[in-house]
Amino acid sequence: MGFCLLNHVAVGAAHAATLAPRGKVAIVDFDVHHGNGTQDIFWEDPSVLYVSLHQFPWYPGTGALEESGEGEGRGTTVNVPLPAGTGDGVYLQAMERIVVPTLAGFRPDLIWVSAGYDAHIRDPLAMMQMSTLGFGAVTSLLVEAAADLCEGRLLLTLEGGYDLEALAAAGSSRGGGGSRAGGRLPPSRLKPRLKLEAAPEPTLQST
Question: How many other CB atoms sit within 10 Å of the CB of residue 192?
């Protein structure tokens, strides 16, 4: 269940992990849809860290906060489910408070990004509020993390994005990220506060 027949990032990351000095690859996925296939592939694999920021609840219905891997892979799946309407401010807080520290703890040889731009405010399929500048800031933070952790080894693979003009602009944007990016997003884009909550326990009702 998903949007692709061949998961290029998963295939590449699995191969890269066999060649890397420490044998560790991190996948950061900011496509608006949770990467259920990528999560499933590496669910019990400690060599690949999978971090996903996605609209939740939303198709395909996976990616709850509690989903964190099993066996030797427990803790190497990190889901950051975000509600509809989330914009630049919360995305950047999630990057700075969750994604970058998680990458630092894992210390990958390579960071591979599932770069979906369908969280853009102009995208017709989802209901998020990311701007072009916001995507540039996210990318800058990942560039910085790669420079700090793995000698700048960073790959971005294009995934979702269904407004072609927004896709082109966001996919080529970089700026306004961390301290080395030369600037920040305007304060009006940074007001919302990040708040993650566990999904409620399911209840069973007799009929």
Answer: 15
